[in-house]
Specification:
heterodimer; A: 3-stranded antiparallel β-sheet; 2 helices; B: mainly alpha; Ferritin; 10 helices; 61% helix
Chain lengths: 97, 269
C-alpha cells in the first residue's frame, strides 16, 4: 500500500478585520503545513483588504459538538429567560449597556 | 481585411531604457505567471500565482506610465505595453522563457521552473526596489516604496516552495535541480553593466546591475542550500533581452498579448 499522501490536510482560517476586533472564522483551505496555510489564507481570504491578521488551525484539531446532540445540549436553554440579565432596573448612567 | 494599429517608435534615452528594463521584466514575468491561471497544481496556489502576476502587472503599469512621461511624446501605459515591436521590449531574457508549457525546442514548463524563477526574480526585484526607494527620481522612489513589500512576499512564498520541493521527494529534487540548471545561465544578464546602468548610477536614478550581485547571492544561496540544490558552474553566456535582442519565445507571446489592442486600439470593456 502506498504511503504517499495525495491530499493536503484541511485548515480552518480565521481572519481579523482590524486591530481590536476578534478573529472570525471565514472558511477553510488545503495546505501542506501550517506555515504555507497562512500564506495561502492570505491569498484566498485577504486579497480585498479583509484582514490585518490570520490564524489557521488544522481542522482535525478541532473537536466539535455532535449535531445529533443538539436537542440535549442547546434546547434546554430555551425557557430559562431568567439567565438573561433583563430584569434589573438600570440607573440612567448605564442605560446604554 | 482587419486594420491593425501601427507600432509606436520610442525615443529611447538612457533613463527611458533604464525604467523600461524593469517595467518590461515585470510585465513579461507577469504574463508568464498568468499562464497558470486556471491550471495551478491546487486551487490555493493557482490563486497565489495569479495574485502575484497581478502585483507585477500593477508594478509594470506604474513604471510604463512613468517611462512614457520620461520619453516625452505623450504615449500612455497601454500604448507602451501593447504597441511596441519586439526589439523595443527590454525585459530580461529569463522572463520570456516558457514557464508552464514546454515544447520540443524549449524544455522546462514545469512547476519547478515556476517557483525557482519566481524566487530568483523576486529576490532580484527586491534588491532593486529597496535601492530605488532612494532614487533621485521621486516618482520612481514612490513606486519602489509600494513594490518592495510585494517583492518581499513573492520572495518568501517562492522560497518556501523551493525548499519544500528541493528538499522533498527524489522526483521533486531531481526536477528542481534540472530547472536550476536550465535557468542559471540566464541569471548572468541580471548583473551585467552597460552604459544605461552607468548613467543611472551616476545620476542617482537607480543602481547599476553589477552592484546587485552580492546582495542577491546573499539572499539566494542560503535558500538554495536549504533546498539541497547545487549551484551550476558559471557560464560565459550572457543573454541580451535588456538590449532588445530576444529569444524565439518573446515574439509568440507578444503576438498573443498584443492582438486585441492592435485590432481594437484603445479598446475598453
Amino acid at each position: 500500500m502506498s504511503t504517499v499522501q495525495n491530499e493536503w490536510p484541511l485548515f480552518e482560517v480565521f481572519v481579523r478585520a482590524k486591530a481590536g476586533l476578534d478573529h472570525k472564522h471565514c472558511g477553510s483551505l488545503h495546505a501542506p503545513d501550517a506555515k504555507m496555510a497562512v500564506q495561502l489564507a492570505r491569498e484566498v481570504y485577504t486579497r480585498r483588504q479583509e484582514g490585518t491578521s490570520v490564524w489557521v488551525v488544522r481542522s482535525s484539531d478541532i473537536t466539535a459538538s455532535d449535531p445529533g446532540d443538539k436537542d440535549m445540549l442547546f434546547d434546554p436553554a430555551e425557557d430559562k429567560v431568567y439567565r438573561h440579565p433583563s430584569f434589573y432596573e438600570l440607573p440612567d448612567a448605564v442605560n446604554h449597556m | 481585411m482587419t486594420s491593425t494599429s501601427e507600432s509606436i517608435r520610442l525615443n529611447l534615452t538612457p533613463p527611458v531604457r533604464y525604467v523600461l528594463r524593469i517595467a518590461d521584466s515585470c510585465l513579461i514575468h507577469a504574463q508568464r505567471l498568468a499562464e497558470w491561471c486556471g491550471h495551478g497544481p491546487v486551487l490555493e496556489e493557482d490563486i497565489a500565482l495569479t495574485n502575484m502576476a497581478l502585483d507585477l502587472i500593477g508594478q509594470a503599469r506604474s513604471l510604463l506610465t512613468h517611462a512614457a512621461r520620461l520619453e516625452g511624446q505623450g504615449f500612455d501605459e497601454d500604448q507602451l505595453a501593447f504597441l511596441r515591436d519586439e526589439r523595443n521590449y527590454l525585459n530580461l531574457t529569463l522572463v520570456e522563457q516558457p514557464m508552464r508549457r514546454s515544447s520540443a525546442h524549449a524544455p522546462g514548463g514545469d512547476f519547478a521552473d515556476t517557483v525557482l524563477r519566481n524566487f530568483l526574480l523576486a529576490s532580484w526585484l527586491k534588491s532593486i526596489w529597496s535601492r530605488l526607494i532612494s532614487s533621485s527620481d521621486t516618482e520612481l522612489a514612490a513606486i519602489a516604496g509600494k513594490a518592495v513589500k510585494e517583492a518581499r512576499y513573492h520572495q518568501q512564498h517562492a522560497a518556501d516552495w523551493v525548499v519544500r520541493l528541493g528538499d522533498g521527494t527524489e522526483e521533486s529534487a531531481r526536477r528542481m535541480q534540472a530547472a536550476l540548471t536550465r535557468i542559471w545561465p540566464y541569471t548572468n544578464e541580471l548583473f551585467v553593466r552597460d552604459g544605461v546602468d552607468a548613467e543611472a548610477e551616476k545620476s542617482g536614478l537607480g543602481p547599476a546591475r553589477d552592484g546587485l550581485r552580492e546582495d542577491w547571492l546573499g539572499q539566494v544561496q542560503p535558500v538554495l542550500a536549504q533546498a539541497c540544490l547545487t549551484l551550476p558552474a558559471a557560464t560565459p553566456f550572457v543573454s541580451t533581452g535588456t538590449l532588445g535582442r530576444h529569444s524565439e519565445h518573446l515574439g509568440f507571446m507578444l503576438a498573443e498579448m498584443q492582438s486585441l489592442q492592435r485590432q481594437h486600439p484603445g479598446g475598453r470593456w
